[in-house]
Amino acid sequence: MELFQKLKDIIKKSRLKLRRLIDCLLGNTYNHFLCFYPGDSGYFIRKMIKRLANKLNFDDHNIEKIKNIEKDSIVVYASKNKRVFNFLYYHIKLKSLGLPYPQIGFDFRFFFLLSVKRLFQIFLCHMDHFFHYFHFKDPYTTGYATKELLNGRSGFVCLIEEEDFYKRFIKSTPDPLFLLIELQKSIAKSVMIIPEDIIYVTKPMRKEPTIADILFGTHEKPGIIKRFFIILRRPEKIRVELANPVNLNEFINRPEIEQLDSEFQTHKLRSHLVDILNRQRKSVTGPVLKSRQEITEDILTRKSLREYLAEYASQNNLALSKTHKKAAGYIKEIASNYNLQIINLANRILTWAFKNIFDDLVLNQKEINRMREISTRAPLILVPCHKSHLDYLLLPYVMFNNNMPCPHVAAGKNLSFWPLGPLFRRGGAFFMRRTFIGAPLYSKIFSAYLEKLLYEGFNIKIFIEGGRSRTGKLLTPRPGGLAMLINAYNNGACDNLYFVPIFIGYDHVLEEDAYLKEIEGGKKKPETLKGLINARKFLKKKYGKVYMKFNEPISIKDYIKEKNMDLSKTSNKDYMQFVKSFGYKLINAINTNAVATPHGIIASAALNCSKNSFAKKQMIARVNTYMNMLTFMNAELSESLLIDPDNTLKSVINNFISRNFIELADEDDDDITEHTVFIVKDNKRAILDYYKNSVISFFVHFAYTAVAILETDRFVFSSSDLVARYKFLEKIFTDEFFFDEETTYEENISVCIKGFINDGILVPDSPELDMFRITSRGLRKLKWFAAFLQPFFESYKTTLFYFEKYKSGKHKGKERVKKIHSIGTKLYKGKIITLKESLSQVNYKNAANYFNKNGINGSKDHIQIEYYKNILDRLILLITS
Hints:
This protein is α/β, with parallel strands linked by helices and about 900 residues long. Helices cover about 55% and strands about 10% of the residues. Among the domains are: about 1-30; about 45-200 and about 240-285, no CATH class; about 340-590, no CATH class; about 595-695, Winged helix-like DNA-binding domain superfamily/Winged helix DNA-binding domain (Arc Repressor Mutant, subunit A), CATH 1.10.10.10. The protein contains 40 helices and 22 strands. Strands 7, 8, 9, 10, 11, 12, 13 and 14 form an eight-stranded mixed β-sheet that branches. Strands 1, 2, 3, 4, 5 and 6 form a six-stranded mixed β-sheet that branches. The chain is elongated, with a radius of gyration of 35 Å.
């Protein structure tokens, strides 16, 4: 018995010694799992991973998304597919940036990355547990994973993996997302899940896999060989993207989620995260690429269109086969033929060309990142202003180089000539006629094509002005294209649309000479192969900088809700009025985001002088006044104006002299001083007016207010004295400068008065009575602002001479504009009209439209004609006297 007791004591002591040894080897903790990565891999592995990770770009907008998370939140990164490299990349990169980095890899086993010591500890820990409980330790059921998250470590979870799904579905192993939901329900702080994706191939997915896809993996899920090859050879092509974090607390408290049990909440969460990642990838790669023929067949075989074609054939007594042939012909005429090889080739050519002709392309990366984020929610409708043919190329170029798919571009049919037409089609252009009037079948097919593009998820670029602006300012919005896009949304082509107003501005526009001829009455030359060949001369000059600004995207769903509209029940008249109002909103948004260039400011100062000649000192005084007002408005100024305004303006003056816009009164002047006198070349005033109009949107409200103040003919006045004249000016020039439905006349006048007070033009005379006084120098400066409107006053006055001379309906459209221009030329020669830039066909067209709407159609309306002539004469006299 004593022997047995001694043996028992020996065993007990041995077990205690073994226990102490095990505890010592395990570091007195039993939390050793393969899913934890401490970052202490072997030297070689650590260096190799770091080198590979450093080859990948990690943009600032991704960093901001992590930094914006509340400090005490639990952070978990979510990847669609299970890739150890993704985990390691974020572990190394985020750790170096001092951001929450993943250490707990749910369903990961870092066997080959751990040190021998750690592997031994894990083996020992699990074997020890097994001999005690006859099953292996699990990091989830033991609470290890959640405990580590609560202690401040970050996790990493994959969403779709066949092996892990099998374990969860068949063997009922714990689901990491389920554990996260249960954890969130038990704590007050938020669990933040950040969907992440490393996109190795930014090309769109192909519908049919190639042999290379079968062997090395698809674009969406490349195999390990393909990924490794891309990292080594083309790391700059890889995109690292983080989506906006998902607040798990907010997610499970959604009404439709809250009522579910945790298991089904897990399914919803996984679907939600996968959907976010799919949309994130799509914003970079674009939708799945289909052939032109496939898209054509999808459109023409759609049930609703087939029914329309049958009805159209019946109504027009046509054979159905002929109608089908006609519809197929229209699709062929319209549709793009998206080709990635051509887009890549075009990118190389445009990179070379733009470096040759432009000094810089000025962009705001935050605006581009914002646009990319929005594109994950719905298709984008890109709405740039249209000042040059280069607009077609610049925006797709910028998007392509900022890891967004090239948009489909609505282009005029005039650009479909060979060889550019086929190339543009392969670059994403689809062609449209100038007018759809009298072509209902063409209109229907075009609408169906737009719906198909939106249904597939493509971004679309349209020019809301219709054609290029020959005047430098924005043109009246054309509602046709907008109406079709909004109608496509209303028909269910997509859940939402985001319209992105975009400003594109140039220091020096390429088509300068052509615009000068067209403004002065010359005929627009059609685009031809010969013109394309001659365009090579542009590569021999420098055209300054290009400025591109992306405004806040506007959700059409939110806009419709804001207007309390039900488009399905709206009459055609009300619908078009709604579209027109939305068009003005987009135009105003572009103007709001415009960039004031030194060329526009110097041109304004030169043309707004009362005579053709002026001293540099006089021009600089105007420049300083305009700059003060731009600063007051917090207007967007070109970078050169912000950094070194004096030298920039000197450079522009020299540039205008070299381009023969202005000349020295004394050719023997060696140096330009403040007393140097310049003369504006009469035949170049229209081009200077183009550049002046590029900044006129900043000053038009000040011009209205200045004219209203001058007309009071008093040095002391109240703001209420200005409303009637301001209202008249805004109404008469609606098609020139548009209006903002969201601000009142009184609000605009108040802002302008504050600006004038800020510049010393006005001083408050009696604040209680809303009275203001013009200062001694203020009267002169008011005329500098009012002078922005003088060319328009003269153009509208000329149009009244036309109506005074001809009967109603004598001329229509272009013929009427030509007649008005002929009258204007005679008035200019007779010095009744003093500004050559007022001989503008665009101004004449807008003036005729306004007067037609307000009861002036011909000589019989002489009472109304005299009424407007008297007003315009008086306003012109206020500026010139």
